């Protein structure tokens, strides 16, 4: 285990760029939003100070409307190292201090801030870490729950597959089919320089991602519900928002603010999740397509993520789904991103089946939250065994355990550190 810890530390040091960390040095050479939150959750075991700086660097790029951009571009990296780069997003329209993208990612940040604080409260207090972050995190959640409540049901909408974090999920196939792709010869994909085309999204889907991003940019990143060709209420984003509001209640107490509004918002999002996205027959949460006005019948790990929400009324039913042949808990490597029994399942293609460390970690937290401790320990062991065999890969094939995607992937290393540190359910929780 010491070897694994040392190896994880080496990955994080290798991927550090000044005050922030890139997800993978070649494929993703900038700072990504939810990656940095997971990275801070690992770094706090190594250097709480460095974990604070990671989050501060990201929040330093927050827009005036409260959104935290999904990429903060590293000025030292050539503009064409990743597509779409800073020139594509033209963020100077809304934000002129640092170059960023204009879309968002799931809100893991308040949880990461709270747990980073807990790693060394005295040091964090000396730096006024939470006093400075609290108003920014409040603005971020306000943006999500006001500007992004496009369906009017109390949930934040995701307006691009990249915002979901699970970009190539089969759940997005039908809503994306309505979008006309930008032709492949109109831009140059950089991801295929570093990853096999058989593991990445198809050119048609990439063209649709580019179309959606360009349309949003050309509308000045205005969140006008009627204008979006793609708008989804996703259970992963909203589960993380409920978890984040619980973390905000803990942060509020620490900074002498009122925790009550945060607890009320956490309860409201939890209610909205269960009334709008829960499928009792299938025993899983589904994404809701706001343009097509219906839930999307694909069973993905996003639909299991509400397990991490404290007080979720259907937690035991979700655990039964996790153990079923669809997700094979205890019988496959970590937690697959997609239903193992579905026709569209692929063990190798990005977000269409492979197991990822961050989503498996969310499920591990959920199992502990709802006192399924034996399942939680087995999942933790499976994650550590997988990483010990496959290395710190971006994702793995659930059935063979083969490592896939980028090598030396930061959140895999960071969350390995977290799993190694968190021996008991009484560890640092909000
Ligand atoms: C992947 O997404 C980026 C776009 O944001 C890409 O495919 O180029 C996803 O796995 C996402 O969840 C992750 O944050 C990002 C960087 O690791 O890569």
Secondary-structure map with pairings?
Layout: H1 2-15, E1 16-17, E2 20-21, E3 31-32, H2 33-43, H3 48-59, E4 71-72, H4 86-89, H5 109-119, H6 121-126, H7 129-147, E5 157-158, H8 161-164, H9 173-177, H10 203-218, E6 232-233, H11 235-254, H12 260-276, E7 278-279, E8 284-285, E9 288-289, E10 294-295, H13 315-323, E11 355-356, H14 357-369, H15 373-390, E12 395-396, E13 403-404, H16 410-421
Antiparallel strand pairs: 1-2, 3-4, 5-6, 6-9, 7-8, 9-10, 11-12, 12-13
Helix pairs in contact: 1-16, 2-3, 2-5, 2-16, 3-5, 5-7, 5-11, 7-11, 11-12, 14-15, 15-16
Bound molecules: (2R)-3-hydroxy-2-(alpha-D-mannopyranosyloxy)propanoic acid.
(2R)-3-hydroxy-2-(alpha-D-mannopyranosyloxy)propanoic acid binds next to helix 2.
Task: Please provide a written account of the structure.
It contains 16 helices and 13 strands. β7 and β8 form a beta hairpin. The protein has a single domain (about 1-425), classed as Glycosyltransferase. By secondary structure, the protein is α+β, with helices and mostly antiparallel strands. It has a four-stranded antiparallel β-sheet. The two termini are about 25 Å apart. The protein binds (2R)-3-hydroxy-2-(alpha-D-mannopyranosyloxy)propanoic acid. The site of (2R)-3-hydroxy-2-(alpha-D-mannopyranosyloxy)propanoic acid has 10 residues, from α2.
């Amino acid at each position: 285990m010491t070897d694994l810890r040392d190896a994880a530390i080496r990955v994080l040091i290798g991927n550090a760029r000044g005050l922030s960390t890139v997800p993978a040095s070649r494929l993703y050479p900038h700072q990504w939003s939810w990656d940095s939150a997971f990275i801070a959750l690992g770094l706090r075991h190594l250097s709480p100070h460095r974990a604070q700086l990671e989050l501060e660097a990201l929040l330093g790029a927050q827009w005036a409307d409260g959104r935290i951009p999904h990429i903060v571009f590293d000025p030292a990296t050539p503009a064409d190292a990743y597509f779409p780069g800073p020139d594509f997003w033209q963020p100077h329209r809304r934000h002129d201090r640092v170059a960023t993208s204009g879309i968002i990612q799931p809100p893991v940040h308040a949880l990461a801030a709270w747990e980073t604080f807990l790693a060394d409260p005295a040091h964090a207090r000396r730096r006024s870490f939470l006093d400075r972050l609290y108003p920014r995190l409040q603005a971020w959640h306000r943006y999500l729950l006001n500007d992004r409540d496009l369906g009017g049901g109390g949930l934040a909408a995701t307006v691009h597959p990249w915002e979901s974090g699970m970009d190539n999920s089969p759940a997005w196939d039908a809503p994306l089919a309505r979008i006309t792709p930008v032709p492949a010869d109109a831009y140059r994909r950089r991801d295929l320089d570093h990853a096999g085309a058989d593991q990445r999204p198809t050119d048609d889907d990439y063209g649709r991602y580019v179309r959606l991003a360009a349309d949003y940019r050309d509308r000045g990143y205005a969140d006008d519900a009627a204008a979006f060709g793609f708008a989804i209420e996703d259970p992963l984003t909203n589960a993380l928002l409920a978890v984040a509001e619980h973390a905000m209640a803990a942060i509020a107490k620490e900074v002498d603010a009122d925790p009550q509004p945060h607890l009320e918002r956490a309860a409201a999002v939890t209610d909205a999740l269960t009334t709008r996205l829960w499928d009792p027959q299938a025993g899983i949460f589904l994404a809701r397509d706001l343009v097509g006005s219906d839930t999307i019948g694909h069973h993905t790990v996003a639909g299991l993520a509400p397990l991490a929400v404290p007080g979720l009324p259907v937690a035991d039913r979700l655990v039964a789904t996790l153990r079923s042949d669809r997700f094979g808990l205890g019988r496959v490597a970590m937690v697959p991103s997609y239903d193992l029994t579905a026709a569209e399942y692929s063990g190798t293609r990005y977000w269409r089946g492979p197991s990822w460390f961050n989503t498996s970690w969310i499920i591990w937290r959920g199992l502990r939250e709802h006192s399924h401790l034996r399942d939680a320990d087995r999942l933790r062991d499976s994650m550590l065994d997988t990483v010990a065999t496959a290395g710190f890969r971006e994702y793995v094939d659930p059935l063979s355990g083969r490592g896939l995607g980028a090598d030396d992937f930061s959140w895999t290393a960071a969350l390995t550190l977290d799993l190694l540190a968190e021996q008991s359910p009484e560890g640092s929780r909000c």
